[in-house]
Amino acid sequence: MQKAQYVRLYSDENGDSHFEDLEVPLVPLDFAPPTAPLNIAQFLPATQTLWVGAHVGWAGEEPHPSPRRMIFCVVQGEWEATSSDGTVRAFPVGSVLLLEDTTGKGHSTRITSQGDALVFAVVLADPD
Prior knowledge:
Elements: E1 3-11, E2 17-25, E3 27-29, E4 38-40, E5 46-54, E6 60-64, E7 70-76, E8 79-83, E9 88-91, E10 96-100, E11 107-111, E12 117-124
Parallel strand pairs: 1-10
Antiparallel strand pairs: 1-2, 3-4, 5-12, 6-11, 7-10, 7-12, 8-9, 8-11
């Protein structure tokens, strides 16, 4: 069975941010008949999409919470995030990060690639 993998960055009840590796199983679905079925999984309701770009040397080292719940899909460059618990994770092209640390101490970020970074962001609907 095919699975989609992503990383979740969230805040706990004490306001500390942490990373969590997650995956979603995909199931065959007649998505675009008459073609063969594709493997599909419903994910999270979205409200908007954005392109987010940052130049080499962008200053995101000051800890900050995510301004809203978002999914970041890295399409160019590489960056790293440090959660408030001190864990550092790298996000190269192809990485998917679910940002849910909208409260608390937040995280810091920095561009680690030699060139600019570009992310396709999906702004998520508020949870029920």
